[in-house]
Structures are given as structure tokens and as C-alpha cells.
Amino acid sequence: RKGGMSHCLAMFALLASTRVGAFSLSTKATGRLGARVSSTGGAAANEVVKFDPTKVRAISFDVTGTIMVHAEPIMKTYADAAVWARLPNPPSEAELKPAFKQAYKESLLASPCFGGREGLSSRQWWTRTVTRALELCETPRRYSRDEFDRFFRRVYQHYGSLEGYAKLEDASAFLEWCAAERADLLLGITSNTPARTMETVLPMKGYHGYFRWFTCSQDVGVEKPGREIFDAAFAQARFWYPDLERGQILHIGDSLESDFCGARAAGFQSLLLDRSGNPRVTQYQDWLDAPDYPGKSQEDIDAGTVKDFHAVRALLEGNAK
Fold it and tell me: For the residues of 68-99, what is the DSSP string, one character each?
């Protein structure tokens, strides 16, 4: 159900869609309460944290699938780039999708956080992943160094440009409302997307000015739903509001495992953004475990699920007076 995001090769990520694009691929996957559940630590003192808009002083946002999406299907971008690069026997979208999903999973499990734990650059991590995806196509593809570099650079440039991503209207409207009407709210990013998303994509899309902290898995070395990434976000948020408490942070994202359950397990409030009606938001990561947290139940998850940011605003407005 989720990441994440938003930083490098969104390409194969689409497959992995782990939110999707390779470079901005976030490690997220949609799941259900009945899916495997593992405990990664609960709220302080095992306290049950419920959504309470009257206590919200800070809002943490996921990126890919939450505030923006890839502008076109990721595999289309890759297939088009293969044709543009004049690769011999260029792979089709249909071939790339299952191949990339497998390659993405393999890479993320073997080298988490887009290589952040090993000190790899995003480009190095994605080069490995894309090479593996081509090998896993129904008809394996092995290209010369020059052929691959020409193809890879085309994709990498795309996801480093304005054309690679699109803002989600409801998210943009919500951020504008926060800036105009709720300047007291401290806004930040907590995402599994690569560091490139924080450093280039958000600024290019005009989003960075809304936020005062930026926490991504590649920098931290731990992906959501791991508690450590939420701990890092909490530490960054407290720089701005030194007396901020965990339960005063509301995390919003589109992944049950990574965002909703991960944040609750770390002692944050959380809302699950249901993007199932948006065909541009695809999630393939089905191997993530949903952390346990005090008070976890299907009823609690249902109560914490919203359709869009208009619903989030309504919840906050109704209790802001």
C-alpha cells in the first residue's frame, strides 16, 4: 500500500509502483488488516492514539500518490524511451511491467532505501534495477553499455523534469488552504521516495515552500513503516516546535502499511488517503507488513480513512473554531 514518492527513476517503479516511478518510486503497498501483521513498536507507554483534530499542530505528508503522481504510466515512459533510444527489439509496456515489479522488489529487499544504507547513489541503484528488469523480460534484453546509457539517461532526465510529475488538485488546494487559513500548522514530508524528490522534484513543482521538514528513507536508512523514519521526522519537526508531542502530529498518506499503521505505531495520529479511484495511483508492493499498534482494528482503520484532502480540510475546519 504504499511510498516515496519522489526522486529518481520512476520508470520501473510504476511496476513496482510502489508508488510508482522509478526515481520517485516510493516503497508503498496497499494492504488489508488481514495481511501479515508484525509489531515494530507502539506509541509511547502503549498509549492508544486516535485522530483528534483539536490536538493537531503539525501535519506530515507522504509524497507519491498523496500530493503528486507520475504524469503518465511509468512503463509507458520506459517503453517510449526504449524506442527513442533505438534499442534493438525494444521491450513493450506489457513486457516491462511484470519484469520491473520483480526487479524492483529484488532490489529493494537486497538494497533498501534506494541504496541509502550502502552509500549508493540513486543513479547507481536504479541502473542495477533497470538492468535487472530488462533481463527479466519474457525475452531477456542485454544491451551494450552505450545502448543502455542512452536509454537510461532519457528516462532519468524525464523524471528530473517538470514533465515527469503532476500535482494532485485536492492536495494543492489543501496546502494553499493551510498557508492561507492555518499558518499555525507545521507541515513536513515523511516519505519513502528517494532524496532526489526532496531536492529537485518538490521545488520544481512549487511544493517545497509549504514544508519545513523533509524526511526521506534514503537519508534515514529506514523505510516506512519502520519507526525510525517517523522518529527522524519527529526530531525535525521539534526543531520548529520544541514542545511538540508525537500525538500532535497527523501523518497522511495512501498506504495502509507504510503510512496509516506505521505512523500509528510510532505514536502519531494518521489518516489513510483512499486513492483507489484514481487510475494514476497504482500500488504493487504486496510484501510489506502492517505494523501493529494499540487499538488496531478494522473499525479503527475504516474510521481513519478519507477519500481526499477536501475531507481532511472539513475535519480540521469543523474543529478549528
Answer: EEESS-HHHHHHHHHHHTT-SSPPPHHHHHHH
